[in-house]
Amino acid sequence: MPPANYQRPPRFHFLAAVAITLLAAIPRLLFLGHDSLWFDEIMTRHGAVQGLAADVTALSGRDHLPLLYWLTAAVLRLLPEHAITLRLPSALAGVLTVPLLFAYGRALGRPRAGLWAAFLLALLPFHVRYSQEARHYALLLFFSLLASYWLYRAMSGRRGWPWVAFGAVTAVNLLIHYSAWLLLVAHGLLGAAWLAAAIRRERGAWRRVAPAVVIIGVTVALLGARAMVALRANTGGAMGTTAAAGLGVWLGEVWRAFGMGAAGTAAILSVAVVMGLVSLARRRQWWTLAALLLPVIVPVALIQLFHVTRFALPKYVIFMLPSWLLLAGMGLAAAVDAAQRLTWPGNPRARRWMAATAMAAALALLALPPLRAEIDDMVHDWRGAAGQLGPGAAGDVALALALDTGDGFNAAGIMAPVYLDPGFKLLDGNHLSAEDVAGLAGQTGRVSALLLHLYRPVTLRGWDVSHHRGSLYAATPTGEPGDLLSQLADLYGQLIPQATAPEPACSLRLKLARVELGRGETERAAAAMDAGDCPPGGAERGEIMTRIHEARLAAALADGDRAAADAVTAALLALNPRHEAALAAITVVNWLAELEAGRLTVDAAASPEPVAMRRFTMPQDGDWGDVLFMHPTAAAALAVTLPPEPAALRFRVALDPQSWEWGGDGVTFVVTAQAAGEPARELYRRHLGRDEAGRGWHAAELSLAEWAGRAVTLTLSTEVGPAGDGTADWAGWDAPRIVRVLP
């Protein structure tokens, strides 16, 4: 059992802790509004604006837990909306973590190590960054550290209320970020080991632990389903942001971030950490060692075990930071103690003060350059990039476009409205629609752009391109205002070769084709679709190719070019078998139109229902058709003169899904043809029963080539089944029509 370490430390420790906290507050609060907001922070704003009852899981398909949004919403109710107020919960959590780290060191019986750890945290650029970001990570560190503190306090004493505090803080932490659940496993193992040891000495020890178990258990039960969705979405290569990173990658990224971003400083702190471990082992303080190591070892093991598909970003495991800093603090304290072996100055206390002062000054000098770089850096300088575009005049367009993501996720389209001059018409370039293009047709103005590309610089001819921190670029035109669609076509054409292949380069090709269609440049649109190595298929590609073929068909029909029209018609029907213009181009006779015109010879004397037009929809796939409804026994005949070229009778037959369960023995569909002076000939006979095989659509195409250029009477008829049972024989011929057979 860990010892109770609550001897009152010297007053100097408290004064030093206050001074270090004030030191930490300077970079975290003074420059809080320095950076422009970036994408994830805007998501925080969106979640907070929805209010305290917002279900933030619906935000952009993301699965973050809601506590940050609730806290931000509360702040926005008290203070005006601003980058500073949005970041205030993180900033306060970041500052308060510093004295809390000292308090944890004191609870471990190492108050001087706690002071060193707090000093390192105050100067750590990694922590400054997330203390100034309106996201979860500063809160995650604060409440994770608070949970560790109360767990150690609970294990060190014989009272029950520290366990209640641990349970309550853990419940709060589980509402901040799913990474907290990794820490919960580590704390659970540590608490279980303590309980197993405590029960040997005190059978009733479990009663003190029970409230914490209940609080945490209820929280896990309430959030468990949601956590499982997040687990499936972010592990095993499912839906994460990247492939699972290896152990070496994770440890390397954490080592650099926790070591102030520089290999030299990280190496120095690593030596201090090893000294801290040795110090604990030599004193046989195994519980303290376990309390510091389990929150590191267990989460890393779980990340590797579940193959977490996230970038190896240290912010996801920021709760490991206290263990690193406290162990380093123990090593630094041991180094100061070693200074007492020096012979000068004569006073041992003076020697220790000199060593501590020199060490603190050296660490501050090492931390100053990366800390200053962190303060100067902007993740995405959206304010500066939007300002580069200047004010928007009438007709001006700003295109927001990501060149480095293949899923169409356009951070620029979400960030730009926050900082862009309202005079611009903003277009989401990754999701440019036909309606967007139609709205720009014939319009003049200037096209500017906000571009994202993480992997390579962006260059453009005819635009001034400026690089803003990270992956953000602003492009302003150098020429005079002109046709907007022509400028967009030029812009897309230059950006496609620079985009990440095959996506989003393929996606941008589709947008270029849309723009060319809007300009009336059908063949340019087709060339954009044909270029590159974009895979076939997809709804957007099909829609654009349909529009290209429609334009080609209209041109071919206007020119009287039958061969070209037939080729385009075949392409259209391959994309959409129901395309009206394509069907009209090859249709000789549409039976449904003939029914409406009263030109069919209908025989329904033996049918209980009239021949009419109805719609059947198949429940298994939603496939629908407008049918010539014929309850047996019924027939519909049409006399027609066929064209000289080959023709066919095309249709589908089916039983109305409403009648599938009504009994009966099915329907027989029959097609006959009779030329003048010749006997009738049966071309088609098919029986559909009520079983699974008879359900759904059944297509047929009957050749009429032998009657080409001749008059013939075609008859569609329905008959009752073999048993003569006409119960619920709701039969239909879907879109029967005589069509020219294309070459």
Automatic annotation (TrEMBL):
GO biological process, any: lipopolysaccharide biosynthetic process
PANTHER family: MANNOSYLTRANSFERASE YKCB-RELATED, MEMBRANE PROTEIN
Entries under InterPro entries matching the protein: LipidA_mod_glycosyltrf_83, RgtA/B/C-like
Compartments in which it is found: Cell membrane
Glycosyltransferase RgtA/B/C/D-like domain segment(s): 63-211
Protein name: Glycosyltransferase RgtA/B/C/D-like domain-containing protein
Gene Ontology MF annotations: pentosyltransferase activity
Organism: Candidatus Promineifilum breve
A Pfam family this chain is assigned to: PMT_2
Transmembrane segments: 12-31, 91-107, 137-155, 175-197, 209-229, 257-279, 286-306, 318-338, 350-368
Membrane topology: Multi-pass membrane protein
Keyword annotations: Cell membrane, Glycosyltransferase, Membrane, Transferase, Transmembrane, Transmembrane helix
Cellular compartments per GO CC: plasma membrane
